[in-house]
Amino acid sequence: MSTLIIAEVGVNHNGHLNEAFKLIKEAKSCGADFVKFQIFKSENLVDEQAEKAPYQQKNMTDTSNSQFEMLKKLELSFEDFVKIKEECEINNIRFMASAFDLESLNFLLNLNCDYVKIPSGEIGNVPYLREFKNCTSKIILSTGMSTIQDIEFALEMLNSVGVDIKNISLLHCTSNYPCDLEEINMNSMVTMRKRFGLNVGYSDHSNDNAVSNTAVAMGASIIEKHFTLDNQLEGPDHKASLNVEDFKKFVKSIRKVEKILGSSTKKPTNSEMETKRYVEKKIFASKQILKGEKFSDLNMTTKRSKSGINSRDWDLVCSKEASKDFQAGDLIEIE
Fold this sequence. Notes:
The chain is α/β, with parallel strands linked by helices and 335 residues long. It has two domains: 4-261, Aldolase class I (TIM Barrel, Alpha-Beta Barrel); 270-318, no CATH class. It is built from 13 helices and ten strands. The strands form two sheets. An eight-stranded parallel β-sheet has the order 3-2-1-8-7-6-5-4. It has a two-stranded antiparallel sheet with strand order 9-10. α1 packs parallel to α5 and α10 packs parallel to α11 (244-261).
């Protein structure tokens, strides 16, 4: 099955609907399967005194340290998101979103999307998780900043309100923007798959395409990557995102890994079957063998040949007697 690639716009539209529309078109041109947004009401999400996270301060030139002011500039209305979902349908790319407060979550769940993503910061939010009681969408649970016990708690909570656990995929990530390679710990994605028996994926906040390629090679069925029109734009996530040209390369590299992975069935390829004809060993007489003489290790050998008895049938031939005389170098024939 092909890896689901999510172009994570997040708030990289900078609070402008027309920029969101541009990002949708470009995500489609890059080959993404989904384009994802973040839905929130700033007054429901943060206290007005809340400060920006360290990575937000680092990635922005704005001297204000207010997280509320930053988010308010990045906020789109519910009406905007109805239009965004319609624009996704027009451009034949699937819409996805994560919600960061209860009002936004209820709005999102009523959009009847194929997938809904639970952000890492909500994995222990009991009232938030309980709102999924009537969710008909598949769920992607992001697990940044979490332990196995945190994930288990969230799954139990979702299951307690009627969510079918089989409809949940777990997304490994490191919640730092960008994150260092030493922080990625990709083996924990495999641990989650083994522990919970669910599909897993990876939300890539690194600056190296090799990370997502590694995730796919290790079994990720979903890959998410932040996406922007311009890395130099003002905003918390632009610097940890891929621009259009880089996202195209990113998608191509993942599709290349999928080709390399191929099938789990071990069998010769068509090209190998052709080569096999020229390298397989057949059974030959290593010395003169007279009619009635028994074939054995002492009078036979193997050589490459297009025709003849395959060397895998050596023991079968050894149980037979020669029906005619053979000279050294003759292909062995049996009746």
